[in-house]
User: Fold this.
Amino acid sequence: MKIIVCIKQVPDTNEVKIDPKTNTLIREGVPSIINPDDKAAIEEALKIKDKQGAEVTVLTMGPPQAEYALREGLAMGADKGILLSSRSFAGSDTWATSLALSGGIKKIGNYDLIFCGRQAIDGDTAQVGPEIAEHLDLPQITYVSKIRSINKEKAVVERALEDGYEVIEVTLPAVFTIIKESNNPRYPNIGRIIDVFDNMSIDVWDEIMIKLESEKLGLKGSPTQVLRTFTPPIKAPGKMIEGNTDKEKVLNLLNNLYNNIVK
Amino acid sequence: MDFNLDPKHQMIKEVCRKFADNEVETIAAEIDETERFPLETIEKMGKLGLMGISIPKEYGGAGAGYTGFAIAIEEISKSCATTSVILVAHTSLCASMIYNSGNKEQKQKYLVPLAKGEKLGAFGLTEPNAGSDASNQQTTAVLNGDHYLLNGSKIFITNGAHADTYVITAMTDTSKGLRGISAFIIEKGWEGFSFGPPENKMGIRGSSTTELIFQDIKVPKENLIGKEGQGFKMAMMTLDAGRIVVAAQALGIAEAALEESIKYVKERIQFKKPLSKQQIIQFMIADMATEVENGRNLVYKSAWLKDNGKSFGISSSMAKLYCSEMASRVTNKAIQLHGGYGYIKDYKVERLMRDARITEIYEGTSEIQRTVISSSILK
Ligand SMILES: Cc1cc2nc3c(=O)[nH]c(=O)nc-3n(C[C@H](O)[C@H](O)[C@H](O)COP(=O)(O)OP(=O)(O)OC[C@H]3O[C@@H](n4cnc5c(N)ncnc54)[C@H](O)[C@@H]3O)c2cc1C
Assistant:
């Protein structure tokens, strides 16, 4: 079994600052981490590797520093790391990103499963995984919370819904997007960290190596335009209407509405 | 010159930080209060590769050197010095002594399981009459055919009651003074090996500190480390490197005290504004931060010297001396900044101050470090 896990290096904060002029994220001085959903995707792949054997490749598109995220994936137990990095990739939106990643995946070849995280904490679009599935013409299951069983032909998984989950059987190869609630990613072993830095290398591929024209990539290949960014207004917390009987609760509710809204 | 952590050490730091936050900090106050030895943490540290962090891969270790070791101890000590002292005694003393001076068979039999975290180690040098004057050993080992007969006792031994493997020193030739001291590996469960009651300590209260009692223990000849008479020298060599991680432990405790203080003075309102708006408070924080930074530079430099095969003994003594006394000063100030709350056990700084104090005493007191440093300068 061959599993490719697409990961993204993101700034480690929920309060990322935005440059008001360019409407892009200010990354300076913010420590970088593997996007939490993506880390869960690595863990899910490694669980399959532990149980039944698999070759796990971590793949990312990003600047040269993103190599560190790949090495963390290797330290957790992945077998190979591939970095898509080139000037041509800069400024990519989700479309251009998923195209580049699909190019990387095709070059790796022979895969049974593609894992992505549900969404990245710095973009929150949740688009890249599904778009990869479309580029590669593969079935996709989003919001995967549990893999029940898997073999070379098919998998049975649980897909999280707002108030429960559905069980889906799918033929492989397929694309899953994994949610971080599905597991607790393991700590990288320290001896393995030493090995990863001293004895393992990361392949770096550019657009030529993944056979894509630079016009389709990066800013040029990105149909998305950021018009405006803003902080959503904070919603006031909800209020519990109490009462000993249903009747009392309804009365309290009406009083509340009258006093706060009508009056 | 480069003061940046390289990416490999950066990752070790991040992993240890996360591990300490999730697995160590969460039980630190409880194991201090109840004097509980955290066996479950030892198993987790083994899995992470911490128990043999500085031991090379060929013997089951992580091969992260003393830089990796110091970083790990620093991060864990920020959460819990009880947990870090278990590692210090196990790895930097017991396992390192076997790694430095043991033969092939001893390494396979004892070092590998220690480095993998399958067995816990302890190191017994101190005796009731041999503290700072460690050469005044009264424990004896008398050769008797294929074994030595071991008699005597060791006091204040970390991991004492819970270890499986012990590196201990004893006199094999009382006429030769410190050149008559030899080192041995002994195992828990051997006939004649027993323990005193646990010590009731001021700090690092979850750690195990006990007396080891030897009554006619038959130690096989092959458990002699190195040659007869080399025990004292080997123990001193081991302690030289051990001081780097005791310094790192003190550093971590001080860093935690500084972090707690920064948080507290920003939150605590008196005279209608946060304490952090008072200049005298600002200057205390500045002094604490400067001392911590100083300490970190000494620790990392000592580790760097050791990992690069350079002479590190004086540097590690300086790091140990400075960081331990610095940790006492910084934790003391942290309590002051917390006012009455700092004196109450609900606040972490109370434990930090008690834990800091031991670092000025074990693995060579401050007075002994000053003696070592000055004699190397004034010789
Ligand atoms: C919690 C704990 C854990 C320990 N763990 C271990 C362990 O795992 N293994 C182990 O072998 N030991 C261990 N020890 C022992 C520790 O290393 C000794 O306590 C320490 O070396 C000091 O020895 P002492 O207690 O006999 O004090 P003493 O040597 O009696 O010292 C008393 C005071 O006199 C000073 N002094 C002594 N000689 C001189 C001198 N020549 N010049 C100036 N001042 C001097 C000392 O600095 C100190 O201030 C531990 C101790 C404790 C408390």
Remarks:
- The CA atoms of residues 33 and 40 of chain B lie 17 Å apart.
- The interface with chain A takes residues 6-8, 10-12, 15, 18-19, 47-50, 52-53, 57, 61-64, 68, 72 of chain B (CB under 8 Å).
- The mean pLDDT of chain B is 97.
